[in-house]
Amino acid sequence: MFQTTIAGSLPKPSWLAEPEKLWAPWRLQGEELISGKRDATLVWLKEQEDAGIDIVTDGEQSRIHFVHGFLERVDGIDWAKKTRMGIRNNRYEVDVPTVTGVVKRKGPVHTDDMRFARAHTRRGLKIELPGPMTICDTIADAHYGRRADLAMAFAKLLNEEARELEALGVDVIQLDEPAFNVFMDDVKEWGIAALEEAVRGLTCKTAVHICYGYGIDANIKWKETLGSEWRQYEEIFPAINNSRIEMVSLECAGSKVPMSLISLLSDKQIMVGAIDVATNRVETPEEVASVLKAATQYASPSRILGCSNCGLAPLPRDVAAAKLNALAAGAALMRKQMA
Ligand code: ZN
Q1: Going by C-beta distance under 8 Å and a sequence separation of 6 or more, which residues neighbour residue 185?
Q2: Residue 44: band (very low, low, confident or very high) from pLDDT cuts 50, 70, 90
Q3: Which of 5, 13, 237, 289 lies 20 to 30 A from 146 at CA?
């Protein structure tokens, strides 16, 4: 009970990319970049292990952006044909690449990185892939016509990738779907179906991470418009509970998400966000434990994991490391209390 894991991303060391900046370009090239990414992966595997995190990640050290890192290895996308698009329901305006033909993987995307990570840790290992709906909300479409069709096409590619990762010994395949908190009707119409296609036939654990985003200004401003209680999860959790995804994350640290929404996930393992990613202040183990304890009102301890609200990538490196320690120490406190 109270196993721990993180949403996924961790800061890049300063020799790999500019710190405290989301999506900063690489500072290395060619062979140096390849070994730089591996060194960074080793650093964070060690930090997570030393902190006592049970299900570790590679900290997403080998990609700049959680969606584009996958799309770069997909055919059928014209990167020169940029379309100006308001994404996450116009929360950000960005120039996105355009789908101009049938999408197809050029080859394995993350297998080399995960083979390396697998070789260097005996803990549970989790990989994060972008969810089909979030991909569709991060790219323009000039080929498929319907978003649901585009999502299903990407879901099939994600499934091929996920099966290869599972075969390498990855223990948990997580789909990141921040768009699920924005397009609640689409989630029910086709989002869950696309998610299930992405995990079809897998025997390893499957997870979905749905969040209110990184602690950046655009997200903080958006959160201010969501009212005194954030109930977006309420609309989609019943459908997720009926899906075959086994683990679901929600933001509980410093957020206005009512903890009672956990009761809508009665058949799932819950990754309870007990680390706030929108502040550099490091939680105490007692604070982490109190969030996990509150979650036990709505789910048995065996179904609760301690997690971060979202990725830790934009934080200073020492802050992120300290938050890993707080998370694991808080979960350990809870285990002791329950013993
Ligand atoms: Zn997130």
Answers
A1: none
A2: very high
A3: 237
